[in-house]
Amino acid sequence: MGIFAALAFQFLIVIFEMGLGVWLLSGKQQPASWAVVLSAFVSFAAITFYQGWIGQASCGCLGSKVSVNPWIMFSVDLAAVGSLLIARPDLKPLWDNRVRLARATASVVGVYLLLMGILAAVAYYGYGSVDAALASLRNERLSISPSMIDMGVGAPGETREAKVELTNRTEHPIRLIGGTSDCSCTVIGDLPVTIPPGEARSITVAMHLAQRGRKFQSQSRIQDR
Question: Pairing with 82, which of 47, 55, 135, 169 sits 20 to 30 Å away (CA)?
């Protein structure tokens, strides 16, 4: 949720993981790479723990089409952290060369930020925004923002509402004539609606909370007809 659901943020994470993977395969600066990998898996463990704590159904670690319980990935992350602590390299060179390492880290971060800036500039120049560029790469004709909504805590039997924005990424109008609904969630209140090319419209998502107190997640999808 929040920044974690943003396409641009997910893209940055993917680039970071790819760069880290190449670094590990190169075998260069093992003490430094060990420290970065340990920090990464500690962060992953913290995120998956939080996802499991709030009752999220899937951590999203393997994409939107593969659902994995956050507690499973939390166990995997903890196992990775434990393995890294047991099989740690000699860290003395890391301490002895701390000044040189700090300079190298600053250089890497600088290059990374420069690359991200160039990619963002290309995205804005060619598509108007980073989200639009990523949607084009994903062949996404209709985008939902935010992709996940936290309805918060409510009383059993209460109905809560939130707004989501639908953006038409095509060159022709898109008309939504209906929506799906289940025992807890409905999106049909503001439909039908026509979205002109390149524009966005907001619709209301209504969720009826269960009679008994519990945490749950409902996922919505768009299907072409």
Answer: 55
